[in-house]
Each structure stands twice: as structure tokens, then as C-alpha cells.
Specification:
Shape: globular
Strand content: 15-25%
Order of helices and strands: HEHHEHEEEEEEEHH
Radius of gyration: 21 Å
Helix content: 25-40%
Largest sheet: 5 strands, antiparallel
Number of helices: 6
Structural class: alpha+beta
Mean pLDDT: 91
Distance between the termini: 22 Å
Low-confidence stretches: none
């Protein structure tokens, strides 16, 4: 890769696309297979086994980013839906989600490939607009973190219809999601059965078009990290 941003994106996409997240229902592993897996003690073990927990995957990202010459560290994010971080409340459980931090100039950029369906340099919305504590031997390094801008999360809908002589409107509707919308849909559907997918999409449409008949439902890449 030519640019630092592209290097980090490729490392991020390798971690979320090639390393199986053991904690996801849609990972293709049975409960028995998961039970037999040994815990990973190091990033090297995660890389060798090709699977790990969300924290394992984020730890591997930090190791690979360091190997590529970046100042990368583990960090813990505050979940603002449980406790909103305040400097006056100095307790460990304020920070609960392990993420990766990369220093770019005088700023820190945060990554969470362990979330699987979030693109590079986006962290869960629950961890945005609050603070993150970054591993540091010399000082308490707690920095504010903003949520991803709205344009990173888009929901597109398009349709092609025909109207027959009897007034019947028929055609195809396509919905595409990016960013937080995409992550939410994939989190809901990555392990869903075809029947569960059908009910999910019908529930989106029918409240708005009560007389519509919804057929030929298809969802693409529901459990593919790098595909739309």
C-alpha cells in the first residue's frame, strides 16, 4: 500500500475478513467446535489459529500495525449507554470495550476489527462521543473520541416498477446499507434462517405498504465482513 491510511485499512480488513470471530453466531462454527478451541494467549497464536475473540482480533491488529511501523496500542472504550465517562468518577468499569489505538501525528485514531462489520477507523456508536483510555506506562492517557460522521452511514433505496392496465404496480426494490446501518443489519441477519430473513424484511415493508405482496426476498453477504 502507498499511503498510511491504506496500510491500516488493509491490516484492519485482514483482521476482520480472515480471522474468524469465535463470538459471532454466524461464524460457521458449531458449539462443539467452539468448545474445543484453545484460548489464544498472544497475537501470534491468533494469527496461527485463524480465529479468536473480538479482543484477540483487536490485539492482532495492534501487533500487525506495530510491525508495519505504526505507534499502536490497545485501548479500552467507554460504553456511554451504560455509564457516561466523567473524570470525577475514576473506576475501572467505566471502560469495557477493548479497541485498537493508532497515533497519527498528534491525534489518535481508533479501530475495532473485532466488531467484524464496521469499516476501518469506525468504532461502535456506543463508544463514540465519549472517552477512551489508551495503554500507557507513564501517565493516565484518556482522550475524547467523536462518533463517525453521518455520511459514513448511509441507507440507499432504489426501485424499478412497471404499471399494468389494471393498475398493478410490480417490480424490484433494492436496499443497500453502509456504516452503522450495515453493521446493524448484519448483526441481525448473519446467522438468520431464510424464514427469519423473510420475516425481518417483511416487517420493514408492510407497515408502510399494507397491501403489498413481498416475494423473492434475497439478502447478500449477511455474514461477509468485506462485502456490501
Amino acid at each position: 500500500a502507498d499511503s498510511a491510511d491504506e496500510k491500516l485499512r488493509q491490516i484492519h480488513d485482514f483482521c476482520r475478513g480472515q480471522i474468524v470471530n469465535r463470538q459471532r453466531d454466524g461464524n460457521g462454527l458449531t458449539k462443539e467446535e467452539r468448545r474445543k478451541l484453545k484460548p489464544n494467549g498472544t497475537a501470534a497464536q491468533t494469527l496461527k489459529s485463524g480465529s479468536g475473540s473480538a479482543t484477540d482480533i483487536n490485539t492482532l491488529f495492534v501487533a500487525l500495525a506495530r510491525a508495519a511501523g505504526f505507534e499502536a496500542r490497545l485501548a479500552m472504550a467507554n460504553d456511554r449507554t451504560i455509564f457516561f465517562y466523567k473524570p470525577s468518577i475514576a473506576v475501572p468499569f467505566m471502560f469495557t470495550r477493548a479497541v485498537a489505538a493508532v497515533q497519527r501525528g498528534d491525534k489518535w485514531t481508533f479501530f475495532d476489527p473485532g466488531a467484524t462489520y464496521l469499516p476501518a477507523d469506525m468504532i461502535d456508536w456506543r463508544n463514540g462521543d465519549t472517552s477512551i483510555i489508551i495503554a500507557n506506562e507513564n501517565q493516565a492517557l484518556i482522550v475524547p473520541v467523536a462518533s463517525a460522521p453521518a455520511e459514513r452511514s448511509v441507507r440507499r433505496q432504489s426501485a424499478a416498477f412497471t404499471l399494468d392496465a389494471n393498475g398493478l404496480l410490480e417490480g424490484e426494490v433494492t436496499m443497500e446499507f453502509t456504516g452503522y446501518f450495515e453493521a446493524a443489519e448484519k448483526d441481525s441477519l448473519d446467522a438468520a434462517t431464510p424464514e427469519e430473513i423473510r420475516k425481518h424484511l417483511q416487517a420493514l415493508v408492510e407497515p408502510h405498504l399494507k397491501s403489498a405482496e413481498v416475494t423473492a426476498i434475497k439478502v447478500e453477504h449477511a455474514n461477509r465482513a468485506l462485502e456490501p
